[in-house]
Amino acid sequence: MSRTMRYRMRCWLAAHGLPLLLQGASRQRRRVSRGQALVETALLFTILMLLVAGATDISTLLTDHLNIVYAARQGARIGSTLGASSTADCGIIGAVQAALAGDANITLTQIIIYESDANGLPVAAAEEVYVGTTQCDLTTGLPTNSPSVNTWPASVRNNTAFLENSLGVELDYRYTFQLNLLGGGSFLSSDHAVAPIEPTLNPTPTPAG
Length: 209
Prior knowledge:
Layout: H1 3-82, H2 88-99, E1 106-116, E2 122-131, E3 136-137, E4 142-143, E5 149-150, E6 166-176, E7 186-196
Helix pairs in contact: 1-2
């Protein structure tokens, strides 16, 4: 190739070839940049979804825990009022189930009615244990299921003034996460509440005439 031809080729490349090469490289950089942006967006979206799911599950768990505590307190309050009445257990079960009605995340496994000591702990061999699905017979006022443990029936509960028992209600339950995007599934837990049985004065005082 002559010197003139080489000179003309260099001039042509300077005028046309180099801009084309630069243009191709620019296009390739733009494609890489768009791909990187898509990957980063996908990762960010996934992390945000996990955070939202976690916050939702935790807030729902806290709310449902308050519902369980409220249900246990309602049961203990009713048990305290009914004392040694034969309908006491049914009243407790009804109060607990009414307080948790419509809460789809909580499944009661056991309702335990027990005699409590001064520290709120169960007294040994003094409890009534019912399955969580126990219902009440509205005609008799008694539970439709017999307790699996029957060592503290209502008839032996002491409601004598100054000697009255303290009644505890423990709720064992399974909690299922609402969204479960974090893979937590469900877990077992329990809460309880204690209240002193309301004493009955005997003999009943007669108002002054």
